[in-house]
Amino acid sequence: MNISSLILIGASTGGPGRIYSILSALDQHFEGTIVIAQHMCASFIPSFVTQLQTIVPLPISSVEHPIKIERGTIYVCSVTSHLFQKNGEIWLEPMGEGEYHYNPQIDRLFSSASLLPRSLKRLGVILTGIGDDGAEGSLELYESGGDCLFESEESAIVYGMPRRAKELVCNGNVGSIEEIIERIKGYGDAHVRMV
Q: Cα(23)–Cα(74) distance, rounded to whole angstroms?
């Protein structure tokens, strides 16, 4: 398989600052693959990615077309996107703008990850945000054997999305942004391999 571990990050209101904190804590030895769905107008994604590129020592790009994802790389969804397996490799594909209530829709991304092989380590993270996007997708991911981690009420700027996700995924883990950073680092450690 082309990747060893997959970390999905969903965020809305207050998310960009949290994403900066997470990504700036990673180093060049990080081997996990990160896919980010931050609620944002598609036209703002390129400048968001440009800002992230100044703080992250890893390749990072927006998803504009179907792409085979790689280890140690960060992808930012510009529109609602989904993951799928083709010829034993994991791909990420944009599904189009304007077809979903949110852009990009976190539920759709997480749901697609639930269909990937159970042997692939998968972590879904729901950060600060209004509403409930990501809750249903987190439940599907958890039920497929993936791990879920939700920002705590004390840590979140807006405790809407993490709260709803925790209500649905009762056994999901809860943590501060600092604890989330450490968990993500562990998932992307060079020693993490498929089970």
A: 9
Catalytic residue among 5, 62, 114, 133: 133
Q: Is 24 a catalytic residue?
A: no
Asked about 147 being catalytic, the answer comes back as: no
**pLDDT tens digits for 88-130?**
999 999 996 656 789 999 999 999 999 999 999 999 999 999 9
User: Has 112 been annotated as catalytic?
Assistant: no
Burial 25-43 (b: 16+ CB within 10 A, else e): bbeeebbbbbbbbbbbebe
Whole-structure pTM over 0.85, yes or no? yes
Strand segments, DSSP code E, in 3-156 are 5-11, 33-38, 60-63, 67-68, 74-77, 81-86, 89-94, 121-126, 147-151
Residue among 39, 62, 78, 138 flagged as catalytic: 39
Q: For the chain, how big is the Rg over CA atoms in Å?
A: 15
CA distances from 20 to 48, 74, 191 (A): 10, 12, 25
In three-state secondary structure terms, 35 is strand
Which residue out of 4, 5, 12, 112 is catalytically annotated?
Answer: 12
Domains of the chain: 5-187 (3.40.50.180)
Structure tokens at 41: 């107008």
Alpha-carbon gap, residue 148 to 108, rounded angstroms = 15
